[in-house]
Specification:
Blueprint (H helix, E strand, L loop, with lengths): L6 E6 L11 E7 L5 H9 L17 E5 L4 E5 L10 H17 L3 E9 L6 H12 L4 E6 L6 H18 L4 E4 L8 H12 L2
Parallel strand pairs: 2-4, 2-5, 5-6, 6-7
Antiparallel strand pairs: 1-3, 3-4
Bound molecules: guanosine-5'-diphosphate (GDP).
The site of guanosine-5'-diphosphate has 18 residues, from helix 1.
Length: about 200
């Protein structure tokens, strides 16, 4: 698959505004600030495909990028930001769970988590929702450049163990957009989903 040709298609404020539920989608999700936009930019080698500085609390959008006629990348709104009003948080939680559980063309979810703070409550929710419907998940432990090799390996192992409890088939890897570390491993997982 060629990820370098990704193009912005639309921003959907509601699930109803998404393109028809056809073809293949892979979604990226994570808490705000987890490094999701940076990972999408690194993956597609486009500096500002997904904007890396966003205003927390603004109207949240599901951003849709096309890879080719049948394949799309989905950038789900960052969750867990403390300053967002409770009612809005709940509403987005419902939208996210509905997207994960009802979208037929969704083949996989990439879950971004800071390697130093993984599996917060909201990440656990995402994994549990995905597990309920048998949706494959690949966890990217982001900002891996922040840890030394030993601590990094330990974090990956710890995370693998904890993730298994919530989603038995989910996979985990260390990733750094800054150092472009873990990119080949990520491409392999995505190729598997897009070409299945
Ligand atoms: P998002 O809110 O999940 O889209 O997160 P961003 O991609 O905007 O990143 C949040 C912050 O983490 C920004 O200050 C980024 O520069 C930083 N960041 C993202 N990826 C990395 C990485 O691989 N290494 C380091 N050191 N910082 C990163």
């Amino acid at each position: 698959m060629n990820y370098l040709t990704a193009k912005y298609l639309l921003g959907a404020a509601k699930l109803a505004q998404l393109p028809p539920d056809e073809g293949i989608e892979v979604a990226f999700a994570g808490r705000s600030n987890a490094g999701k936009s940076s990972a999408l930019n690194t993956l597609t080698q486009q500096k500002s495909l997904a904007r890396t500085s966003k205003t927390p609390g603004r109207t949240q959008l599901i951003n849709v990028f096309t890879l080719d006629e049948d394949r799309r990348l989905i950038d789900l709104p960052g969750y867990g930001y403390a300053k967002v009003p409770e009612a809005m948080k709940l509403q987005w939680q419902e939208e996210l769970s509905r997207y994960l559980q009802q979208r037929q063309c969704l083949r996989g979810l990439v879950l971004l988590m800071d390697i130093r703070h993984f599996l917060k409550d909201s990440d656990q929710d995402m994994l549990a929702w995905a597990a309920e419907v048998g949706l494959p998940v690949h966890c990217l432990l982001s900002k891996a450049d922040k840890l030394k090799q030993g601590a990094k390996s330990k974090a990956v192992l710890q995370c693998k163990k904890a993730v298994k409890e919530l989603h038995p088939t989910a996979t985990v890897q260390a990733f750094s957009s800054l150092k472009r570390e873990g990119l080949d491993q990520l491409y392999k997982i995505l190729d598997g989903w897009y070409e299945s």
